[in-house]
Description:
Blueprint: H1 6-9, E1 19-21, E2 27-30, H2 31-43, H3 46-53, H4 57-71, E3 76-79, E4 87-90, H5 92-124
Helix pairs in contact: 2-3, 2-5
Amino acid sequence: METKFSEKSEHIRLHxxxxxxxxxxxxxxxxxxWQMLKLIDEKGSLKAACDGLGYTYRRTWGxxxxxxxxxxxxxxxxxRGGSEGGKTVLTDDGRRLVRAFDVFHKSVDDQxxxxxxxxxxxxxx
Length: 125
């Protein structure tokens, strides 16, 4: 059955962001910081990851320090220059945090996609 929403429902796109905060609502980890950590691990460079996402180095460094302070462990291992240049990689705990957020995000994404489908189906009734 066609409703007045049927035609427009095909053009609706869902957007959302996830983030975690402490009890005082200070941001801990969200989509942006999660993507940053993944890119640091992929590129082996904090600067390259900042450049890739268009984030400033100083702000990113401060955000990473806040995450480390909250969780109580280092996220990054840095290696100074030399013939091959320096590099920055995630610690084992940093990788564990990223993997956990990967799993959490996938679960939420699936639930939200299902909820969005139900929303669209309701509009079409």
